[in-house]
Amino acid sequence: MLPRRSSRTLPRAQAVEWVESPPKVIWESGALSVRVNPELGIRVDGVDHYVKLYFKKAPLTKQRLAMALHLLETSTRGARPAGTQVAILDVRRGVLHVPSRPPRMAGVLLEAEANYFVDLWNLLGRRAA
After folding, report:
1. For every residue of 94-121, which 3-state class applies, written as one string?
2. Deepest in the core among 11, 47, 48, 105, taking most CB within 10 A?
3. Pairing mode, if any, of strands 47-54 and 85-90?
4. Is-contact 49 87, C-beta < 8 A?
5. d(CA 53, CA 91)
């Protein structure tokens, strides 16, 4: 059974095949390094995709989905063969999400979140000492 597509995703797929496993990459922002590891490589209607699986019960919000797709897209850009897209498969809902237009300033928002996390981590570490 093929997954349903949400709005702004691929049209109904006619053919799905396995392709080469995607590489694991590191996204860095200042002192923070994040391992980005799409789990699947699939070809949907002749287009290769590196797919991250989403298993959580809570549905993905539009903002979270857009930021996760932007992170996947930018961090794997140099490691993906030309024409390979990224996607997130919401396993519980059977929906394959592909990037549309990222939110304005998506890169800046990711950097800000990373800086906030590092600052909070460092503050908690100082208080625990």
Report:
1. CEEECCCCCCCCHHHHHHHHHHHHHHHH
2. 48
3. parallel
4. yes
5. 7
What is the distance between the alpha carbons of residues 49 and 14, in angstroms, rounded to a whole number?
Answer: 15
**Domain extent listing, the chain:** 16-128
* Mean pLDDT of all residues belonging to the chain: 85
Query: How does pLDDT run across 69-86, given as a tens digit for each residue?
Result: 999 999 999 999 999 999
Number of C-beta neighbours around residue 127 at 10 A: 7
- At residue 79, the 3 state secondary structure works out as helix
Helix locations, 1-129, DSSP H: 62-76, 106-128
Distance CA 24, CA 99 (A): 19
Place of tokens 């539009």: 62
Helix (H) / strand (E) element for 40: namely strand 40-44
